[in-house]
């Protein structure tokens, strides 16, 4: 479609001016405030409560907590927010709604890196709720993320409450994935993953293939029931994920 101009035809697309990020953010914030005002706000800040994604990590392993605001709450990334004059601050509390203390980063074991907090590694005292607050003099938005830090079960390489669960059918194929390891793989690098069953090295039969971050069982048998742990190195740290496989 075109519009007629006194000097000729003017393409409609050329008449569209780009929407400044600040205006877009203003629209998002105003909309959020209207929605959240029904359940109240905290200290004048739009509070999105606790995000559905719960972080769980074993004692001594690294973990990255990302500010969920940039992953589903606002249509902007960290760089855009900075360009618009917004600051990202982090707070910690023992529970949602309890007193929140500003976090002091030592830049070593615990560091703030763009839109996330890195723990290298996590300690038991790190467990709690982490709130990221995006604000300037006019706007303020906040969301909290929960972090659980736990030790391995006695004489095991995993915590039974932190396992993933998969089901398989006898004689059918099944793929077990080493889940949640994206943050620990360098871009373009091929991860070196070692698989264990019941925390012990295993001589895998020919019908079980290891490919990148998966363990592929071509024909499931009853003795495949059990706990599968994948392990990879991240700097000087070890990252493990355990999946319990049941067979029907």
TrEMBL record:
Recorded superkingdom? Eukaryota
Q: Which coarse location class applies to the principal site listed for this UniProt protein?
A: cytoplasm
Matching entries from Gene3D superfamilies are given as: Immunoglobulins
The biological process GO terms on file are: negative regulation of exocytosis
Could you tell me where this protein is found in the cell? Cytoplasm; Endomembrane system
Q: Where is the Ig-like domain?
A: 60-148, 176-246
Q: Which InterPro entries match?
A: Ig-like_dom, Ig-like_dom_sf, Ig-like_fold, Ig_sub, IL-1_rcpt_fam, IL-1RAcP-like_ig
Question: Which family does the record claim for this protein?
Answer: Belongs to the interleukin-1 receptor family.
Please give the name of this protein.
Ig-like domain-containing protein
């Amino acid at each position: 479609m075109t519009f007629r101009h006194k000097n000729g035809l003017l393409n409609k697309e050329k008449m569209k001016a780009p929407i400044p990020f600040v205006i877009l953010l203003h629209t998002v914030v105003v909309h959020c405030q209207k929605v959240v005002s029904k359940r109240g706000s905290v200290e004048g800040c739009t509070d999105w409560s606790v995000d559905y994604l719960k972080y769980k990590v074993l004692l001594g392993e690294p973990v990255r907590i990302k500010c969920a605001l940039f992953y589903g709450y606002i249509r902007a990334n960290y760089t855009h927010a900075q360009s618009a004059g917004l600051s990202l601050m982090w707070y910690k509390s023992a529970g949602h709604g309890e007193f929140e203390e500003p976090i002091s980063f030592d830049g070593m074991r615990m560091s703030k890196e763009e839109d996330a907090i890195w723990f290298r590694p996590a300690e038991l005292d790190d467990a709690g709720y982490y709130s990221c607050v995006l604000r300037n003099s006019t706007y303020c938005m906040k969301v909290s993320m929960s972090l659980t830090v736990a030790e391995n079960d006695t004489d095991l390489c995993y915590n039974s409450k932190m396992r993933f669960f998969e089901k398989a059918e006898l004689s059918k194929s099944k793929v077990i994935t080493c889940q949640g390891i994206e943050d620990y793989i360098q871009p373009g690098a091929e991860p070196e993953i070692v698989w264990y069953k019941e925390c012990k090295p295993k001589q895998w039969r020919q019908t079980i293939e290891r490919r990148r971050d998966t363990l592929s069982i071509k024909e499931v048998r009853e003795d495949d029931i059990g706990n599968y742990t994948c392990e990879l190195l991240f700097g000087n740290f070890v990252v493990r994920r355990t999946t319990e496989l049941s067979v029907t």
